[in-house]
Write a structure and sequence with these properties.
Elements: E1 2-6, H1 13-22, E2 26-30, H2 32-35, H3 41-55, E3 59-63, H4 67-76, E4 80-83, E5 102-106, H5 109-115, E6 123-125, H6 132-135, E7 146-151, H7 160-167, H8 172-185, H9 192-197, H10 200-209, H11 223-252, E8 258-261, E9 274-275, H12 285-291, E10 292-297, H13 309-316, E11 321-324, H14 329-332, E12 340-342, H15 348-357, H16 359-376, H17 379-395
Parallel strand pairs: 1-2, 1-3, 3-4, 4-5, 5-6, 7-8, 7-10, 8-9, 10-11, 11-12
Helix pairs in contact: 1-17, 3-4, 8-10
Length: 396
């Protein structure tokens, strides 16, 4: 059996290609999106339609959701399975998610509950998984070189709200009101305060300030509010969070303890933080995880009830993970047994000090976490679940 895998060069794609192959499927890749950034819509339709006609796949698959794929698959009665690995993904609010061909899998429960009734039974909650099959093939170093490491963006390059404020394009009463909401929200997790307190005037001011504001007149939800809360204020709060927590750790832990691997601007960080630059996700990142005594996960604000891929990658490397808490965490992993979570950033320095001193407990938790994800939460198991669902539907 064949599947068509529509690619756009997500770092998660190779793991799912490998998983589907291990599941016994032939994977035909459509890669024009990677090598040709500006493809006219009509050509996208043609390329996909020709591949479906030629290969007669069991289903079409993509990481994240493409409305045009749904349109093509609906026309020719082929199942379209999409797995979201990012949040926010504005495209999941396209009216095309209502198509009967769609099988959409979302890892964030807030995201899932916001759209599940648009296509009952065909939009499902599915946690992400550890790419154990790939990671186990990589020779890992045993020695530890870094005390506390964080790999990821500081989000300042994604902070469009901050850029609009700095440029003066966003100003006046709307800016003052949003700044008050941010000042209050930064004390608490999530996005509830900014989401509930945002006015129509705030949204209108932001849309006027940024001509590139995402618009979809055919969306199933109010996209203006969603985009403002997530793409602007959520990213801004994430940027504030990450700089704040790294500076807090640098102030509380011995100099040279904090290692940051990022391509973001680090000019506002404490100079005691050792900045290494970015690493390649598939080839270099696993080695950093293994060489770190403590690996931090600092979840983006826009992921409100889900486990980001970073957690699965860390634990899949048999490495020790410290993460902020999320309601979804306890459903799949146990804090203190498989990883360690913290409720507030003020707890983090003492947690890091404790586990830097207790290497035996740290390694025990890392091993238990690896055993748990290997048994129940791998990318292969997620891929098998998708295949099993679609095959059972075809046989029923």
């Amino acid at each position: 059996m064949k599947i068509l895998f529509y690619r756009y060069n997500s770092i998660c794609e190779p793991d799912y290609i490998l998983a589907f192959q291990k599941a016994g499927l032939e994977v035909v890749e459509i890669t024009e999106e990677i090598y040709r950034k500006e493809i006219p819509p009509e050509e996208r339709f043609r390329i996909l339609l020709e591949n479906i006609t030629t290969h007669q796949p069991l289903f079409v698959f993509s990481i994240d959701y493409f409305p045009f794929i749904s349109m093509v698959c609906q026309r020719v009665s082929v199942v379209y399975a999409a797995l979201s690995v990012d949040c926010p993904v504005a495209e999941i609010y396209s009216s095309t998610i209502r198509n009967s061909c769609v099988r959409l899998f979302l890892f964030d429960k807030v995201q899932f509950y916001s759209v599940k009734d648009e296509n009952p039974g065909n939009i499902r909650y599915m946690p992400l998984g550890a790419p154990v099959e790939r990671l186990e093939a990589i020779p890992f170093p045993d020695e530890k070189e870094y005390d506390v490491s964080f790999i990821g963006s500081l989000y300042n390059e994604k902070d469009r709200y901050g850029a609009l404020k700095k440029s003066g394009k966003l100003s006046g009463p709307a800016l003052e009101h949003m700044e008050k909401l941010i000042e209050e929200q930064v004390k608490y997790p999530g996005l509830d305060i900014v989401g509930d307190g945002l006015t129509e005037e705030d949204i209108a001011a932001l849309k006027t300030a940024d001509p590139s504001f995402y618009r979809d007149a055919d969306a199933v939800n109010d996209m203006d509010r969603y985009v403002t809360v997530n793409n602007y204020l959520g990213n801004h709060l994430t940027s504030l969070d990450r700089s704040r927590v790294l500076n807090l750790l640098a102030a509380e832990l011995p100099e040279g303890s904090i290692h940051l691997f990022t391509r973001s601007d680090t000019s506002e960080l404490d100079k005691k933080i050792i900045v290494h630059g970015g690493v390649e996700s598939l080839t270099e990142m696993p080695g950093v995880f293994r060489k770190s005594r403590i690996n931090l996960n600092l979840t983006s604000r826009t992921i409100q009830d889900g486990l980001p891929q970073r957690i699965w990658d860390i634990i899949g490397c048999r490495s020790f993970c410290v993460t902020d808490e999320t309601p979804a965490l306890g459903e799949v992993l146990e804090s203190g047994r498989h990883l360690v979570s913290f409720a507030g950033y003020e707890e983090l320095p003492s947690i890091c000090k404790k586990y830097l001193e207790d290497s035996e407990l740290r390694e025990e938790i890392a091993l238990e976490g690896f055993k748990a994800v290997s048994a129940s939460h791998t990318v292969l198991l997620r891929a098998l679940e998708i295949v099993k669902l679609i095959l059972s539907e075809k046989l029923s």
